[in-house]
Amino acid sequence: MKYKLTASIGAIAAALTGVAQAQVDTITVTAQKREENVQDVPIAVSAFDGQSLQERAVTSVAGLANITPNVSLDAGTPFSGDPAVISAYIRGIGANDFAFNIDPGVGVYLDGVYLARSIGANQDLLDVERIEVLKGPQGTLFGRNTIGGAISIVTHTPGDEFSFTGDVTTGSFELLQVRGTVDIPLSDSLKSSVSFSLKDRRGYVKRMPYPGFENYNVEPIQSMRAAIYGNEGDYEGGTDAKNARVKLLYDDGGPFRATLSGDYSYSKQSQLANKVIATNGLVFAGTYNCAIEGIQPPAGDMSCGGGPPPIAYAGGIGGLNWVADNPAIFGVNVDADPYNDRLPYDDRFVTDDIDTTYATGNNVARLENYGVHLSLDFDVTENATLKFISAYRHLDWDVGMDLDGSPLNFLHTSFTTDQWQFSQEVQLTGSALDDRINYVFGGYYFVEEGDLHDFVTFAEGLLQVDGPNYLKTKNYAGFGQIDFNVTDWLGLSVGGRYTHEKKQFEGAQSDRNGLNYKIAQQFGDPDCAVLVPTISEACRIAQGFPVPGDPLRYYIAGIQEKSFNNFSPKVSVQVKPADGIMVYGSYSEGYRTGGWTTRLSNPLPTAPDFDEENATSWEVGYKSTLFDNRVLLNIAAFTTKYEGIQLNFQQGVSPTVQNAGDARIKGLEVETVFAPGNGFSVNASVGLIDAEYIDVLGPAQVAANPLQGGIFPGADLPKTPDFKFNVSPRFEFDPGNGATVVLLADYTHTSSMWNDTERTFLLERPSTDILNLSASYQEPNGRWNITVGGTNITDERYLTTGQAQIAGGQIYGTYSRPAEWYARLGVNF
């Protein structure tokens, strides 16, 4: 059995604020749709306030990973190209893709509004009041696609008086960040706030020219289809982002309150940092290398590179519009023309430095993301409140990424997404029988619509993917939970949520190069003897392409539909044997809806789909504040049955989604805060987890091989380390002039984990030791403060994401950021 020891103890308690304070401060949360002390909530919740996040230099959702138990959060997923995309896993359950057809396994909420896409979910933590990380299925109160858990971001509430808080930060890689929040009271009952941030930082992976490349020929990237063309400088992994939020709060002390907020973010920056780790001579790489050398096997012989015969390059490589836009390259390195030679694709492009690359293609990620949110609260009685939450959000995303690490057009991906969503939630919360009963009932409506258009260039256009996809989702739900305090020491909670969802989808993925037809022509198919200027219907039918008159389209025509119905219950028992101590046990369920696989590289007669997944979890927990509130100790043990797991698999060159089978996840978390006094505190926690498959469907099994560990019963789940430990000592003191000095260290040890489903050895993340340090000084009146610090002090480098594109010819990934320093000047008035 394998275990995972997880830690991150700043997660429960806010940092101490008084020099002589000898008690831990706990946070008020809304994990059960009402305000409660986090220690009174019978759920494993990690909560952070804005001050503790700033002290730990956590500036985005992904930054919570090291300080939150049983949570893995990475900025970016394979070939997404943008760190604004999040890969989120809680207790072994999550998703590692950004495609529109794949729903997250961990729900991210912004002021109570669900962010339906993983694109943009790695939110910049502007003006954050607190963040709550809820572990385990949260299907009852938060809904579908919170099967792993939920991350709730709560932003700043406008204050009663005019004030301004801001800071300027500089640091490694030419970092410049400016942030500010201003509270502006407009009247006694109407208050407002405006927050903004600007962040610019150079990337850490350097693009270098390949020596001697000027002696070779290559088609410009503009000769291949792409969602966007652009090169944001000579580095990858940079940041250039702008964010703003405006809030209006109406509260005259009466029964009605309203909050209207709007947020906007825009970034246009370099791609997610990428490094080619290895290349191979298989399939596309081998075919291309053989083709430029003029090696042509006999008809029917697939031995050259193990893939399509090189003659497929003879008719012109795929370009913008048709199968012969670009010149043929077969035999160019052995003909009489010395000016048309092409570079082979092999290990010559694997540099010795993980922070360098020979990439020359697109290097741009652009995201525009905004939303409007209206919350109306009515006190219908002294003990009951009716709340309406209405929200509209929209994102527009374009990204172009060079994944092959070379000056060739060998693996370039680009995507464009246009998505909007609208949600309406109604909540009735209240209490009865002298607060012995607390309840929440509600209804939820959600609709989203949009498209994702994929463009992928393989092997100088040998395969030229053009994949428009349209999706629409409608969701209706009703939910409720009743908490009954039977006695002062015994409580019961019962809840459930019923959801109905309908999805629509149409995929139109195609290959602009017509590779299937070129192979058929080479093998002597009489129906495909002539391909230019048109491909005959007889040839289309013979090759299995499903749409009459559209010979390059892999997907069948028409709108596909799927409906899902689910009931997710929750039952909990709480026992309070003494003041400050609670023991609880709970049973809960969650689920994630299914969908369709969109990334095809061969025609199919049906639209391939996948079903929903389900999680059933039992949890027992202990929460306490002891020794006159000097010690906080929380323990949670859980076991989860995880069924119908949706995972990404490589099928040839196509990353597809399918139901893999079932898993059993067992774990233990211990979190503690010790505050002996005199400004000193220590946060620490340990935990154990065992997450492995207990049943794997035949089509999903991958045998162990020289490159990969494989998928089979007993294998580990991805993105789930066996062991994690975090400790964070903090010391606050007065240097003698009434000022405040805070010294903070944050150390996290994480055992190794698999970054991909097939458990590719070169993509395995080794065990890591991350150390962050900071020191801050606040002048006696609190008007200004200065902080200096460093992240990843020991320069620990590891892969955060990656893909084994074996058929395409390479294994690549993104390395973590190196050691960095920063200095921040803050003001308050």
Automatic annotation (TrEMBL):
<keyword id="KW-0406">Ion transport</keyword>
<feature type="short sequence motif" description="TonB box">
    <location>
        <begin position="26"/>
        <end position="32"/>
    </location>
</feature>
<feature type="signal peptide">
    <location>
        <begin position="1"/>
        <end position="22"/>
    </location>
</feature>
<keyword id="KW-0812">Transmembrane</keyword>
<dbReference type="InterPro" id="IPR000531">
    <property type="entry name" value="Beta-barrel_TonB"/>
</dbReference>
<dbReference type="Pfam" id="PF00593">
    <property type="entry name" value="TonB_dep_Rec_b-barrel"/>
</dbReference>
<dbReference type="InterPro" id="IPR012910">
    <property type="entry name" value="Plug_dom"/>
</dbReference>
<dbReference type="InterPro" id="IPR010916">
    <property type="entry name" value="TonB_box_CS"/>
</dbReference>
<keyword id="KW-0732">Signal</keyword>
<keyword id="KW-1134">Transmembrane beta strand</keyword>
<keyword id="KW-0813">Transport</keyword>
<dbReference type="Pfam" id="PF07715">
    <property type="entry name" value="Plug"/>
</dbReference>
<protein>
    <submittedName>
        <fullName>TonB-dependent receptor</fullName>
    </submittedName>
</protein>
<keyword id="KW-0410">Iron transport</keyword>
<keyword id="KW-0675">Receptor</keyword>
<keyword id="KW-0798">TonB box</keyword>
<keyword id="KW-0998">Cell outer membrane</keyword>
<dbReference type="InterPro" id="IPR039426">
    <property type="entry name" value="TonB-dep_rcpt-like"/>
</dbReference>
<keyword id="KW-0408">Iron</keyword>
<feature type="domain" description="TonB-dependent receptor-like beta-barrel">
    <location>
        <begin position="330"/>
        <end position="793"/>
    </location>
</feature>
<dbReference type="InterPro" id="IPR036942">
    <property type="entry name" value="Beta-barrel_TonB_sf"/>
</dbReference>
<comment type="similarity">
    <text>Belongs to the TonB-dependent receptor family.</text>
</comment>
<feature type="domain" description="TonB-dependent receptor plug">
    <location>
        <begin position="38"/>
        <end position="150"/>
    </location>
</feature>
<keyword id="KW-0472">Membrane</keyword>
